[in-house]
Structures are given as structure tokens and as C-alpha cells.
Automatic annotation (TrEMBL):
Belongs to the TRAPP small subunits family. Sedlin subfamily. One of its GO terms (cellular component) is perinuclear region of cytoplasm. GO terms for biological process: endoplasmic reticulum to Golgi vesicle-mediated transport. Keywords: ER-Golgi transport, Transport. Its main location: cytoplasm. Coiled coil: none annotated. It comes from Acanthoscelides obtectus (Bean weevil). InterPro entries: Longin-like_dom_sf, Sedlin, TRAPPC2L. This is Trafficking protein particle complex subunit 2-like protein. It comes from the Eukaryota. It is found in: Cytoplasm, Perinuclear region.
Length: 139
């Protein structure tokens, strides 16, 4: 089960943030924002090769803490999706994490395609928040 999902814009400004426990939201925001440095390192390798252009959207585990594991995903438009998973949940596999990212990416694409959404603004859709929370609980 994911305990936190964050969507970060290409300018590293938060667009959406959802936590399973609202009391820990500030702690999770700190973890998400600190993981952006690792995302930037993975996106900008020091040695550019021909395989660097064929990058995978799924970045894998960014880092692991005693209590949580943090995973990253970047869209083609440089939108970053971060998922924080409880590290005691050993039943989650890499394929399930990838599946969660693809579902969240699909939901994000749907909300951005809404003609009432203003590009660059935080996502305030209640249905989007409910869909993300259901994805978080499915794992």
C-alpha cells in the first residue's frame, strides 16, 4: 500500500499531493522534495551516451529509509510522480509499483486534458483525488 503520492511539475513545483495519513503530510512533503535531487541526477547523467536518450519513464527506487521506500517516475514532459511505500510491506513488487505509476499517469493525463484545467496550476479536482486514493489503497 502506498502511503503518499505526489505529482511535481517540470519546474519542481508541487501539483498534487495525497497522503494516507494527513497528520504525517509535512513529513512526507519533506521526503518527496528531498527525493527530487535524486530524480534530477537520474535524468541528467554525467556521461551522455546514445542509450541516455532512450530512457525509461520508470526510475525505480530512488532511496530507501528505515520506514519507507521512495519510487520515482518521470513523464515525457518532465512531470515527476513520486510514490512513498511503507517498507514493512514486502509483498509489493516492482511490477506492481510500475502498474501504479501507469495508472496515476493515466489519471494525470485525463485531468490535464480537461478543458477547465489551467496548465501549470495545482490539481484541485476532487474526483482526481479520489481516484488517486483508490490507486494508493489497491496495492
Amino acid at each position: 500500500m502506498a502511503v503518499c503520492v505526489a505529482i511535481i511539475g517540470k519546474d519542481n513545483a508541487p501539483k498534487f499531493f495525497a497522503c494516507a495519513n494527513p497528520e504525517e503530510e509535512l513529513n512526507f512533503q519533506y521526503k518527496v522534495l528531498s527525493s527530487l535531487d535524486i530524480v534530477e541526477e537520474k535524468l541528467n547523467p554525467t556521461v551522455k551516451t546514445s542509450t541516455a536518450d532512450l530512457r525509461e519513464l520508470y526510475l525505480g527506487m530512488l532511496y530507501s529509509l528505515e520506514t519507507h521506500k521512495i519510487y520515482g517516475y518521470v513523464t515525457n514532459t518532465k512531470i515527476k510522480i513520486i510514490i512513498i511505500v511503507d517498507s514493512t510491506n514486502t509483498s509489493l513488487r516492482d511490477n506492481e509499483i510500475k502498474s501504479m505509476f501507469k495508472k496515476i499517469h493515466s489519471e494525470y493525463a485525463d485531468v490535464v486534458c480537461n478543458p477547465f484545467y489551467i496548465p501549470g496550476e495545482p490539481i484541485t479536482s476532487k474526483s482526481f483525488a479520489m481516484n488517486i486514493k483508490s490507486i494508493m489503497l489497491q496495492a
